[in-house]
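Support request, priority: normal
Reporter: lab tech (M.K.)
Component: structure prediction queue

Hi team, I submitted a job for HTH cro/C1-type domain-containing protein from Chryseobacterium hagamense yesterday, and the status page still shows it as pending. I've pasted the exact input below so you can check whether something in the sequence is tripping the parser. The sequence length should be 103 residues. Please let me know if I need to resubmit or if it's stuck on your end.
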Amino acid sequence: MVHKRLKFLRKQKGLKQEDLAKILSTDVSSYSRKENGKSKIYDGEWEKLARALDVSVDDIKKSEDPVIIHLSNSIIENLQDYITFLKYENEDLRTELEKLKNK
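Reply from support: The job had stalled in the queue. We restarted it manually and it finished. Here are the results:
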């Protein structure tokens, strides 16, 4: 879970594995193994990663799953418009169904 969170935070900041590898003075392959939990991340490395990600070490290591959804206002507005459209469509279909039942 910790490693998933590390990867999530890295991507959220728009950083590449290469960027964090440089901060840890290692190559991308070694960093990738650390991020994927195949290699140990030492305390000093956690500190460097936290600084690079602008979070605390505890924020990286906290156990909750990072579910953060960023939707622009236009996407939200489009979805709301579509919901409204579907409500009208649903009402029209109900009306048509009632007409067919009454025949």
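The CA atoms of residues 32 and 58 lie 21 Å apart. The chain has six helices and no strands. Let us know if anything else looks off. Ticket resolved.
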